[in-house]
Amino acid sequence: MITEVILVVxxxxxxxxxTTWFSNFAVFGVRxxxxxxxxxxxxxxxxxxxxxIGGFITGLVEDGxxxxxxxxxALIRMAHSAVLGLTSGAIQGESFIVPAxxxxxxxxxRTAVAGFIAxxxxxxxxxxxxxxxxxAVEIGMTTLAAVPMFLILNVLAAKLDRQGRTL
Length: 167
Known about the structure:
The protein has helices spanning about 1-20, 35-45, 50-65, 70-85, 95-120, 125-130, 135-160. By secondary structure, the chain is mostly helical. Helix 1 (about 1-20) runs antiparallel to helix 2 and helix 2 packs across helix 5 (about 95-120).
């Protein structure tokens, strides 16, 4: 239980850092989405329900920090976390390819859901940002960053588990 809470708090902290401190570290105007990596790790480790809850809470934090309508980021984060929660127990292995594939899938789902919401609610500014080459570069950067982030998160989760805390 404690590990899930720590992962959600970590994702929320990264959401805050992403809008403040990390904005200075963009490459070609793009930076990886560390929040999607953390939420993917948490959902893959803990399942659909806990993934949805973590994604929704983190999305609400992002909504509070952005000019997006309340619930926009919460719905996006909840959707990709729920889908990746389906992989819990279904995909085994700690190879380099598994984290990259999971995060790639999550980033594509995040982008598709954002585009879908933008079309339905006629958020033209969001729709124009979703279908750009920068989005493709961001997905690629996020996918590449997944491997080292999963290694770090695995160490963190294992340390918490060794201390007698259960998932």
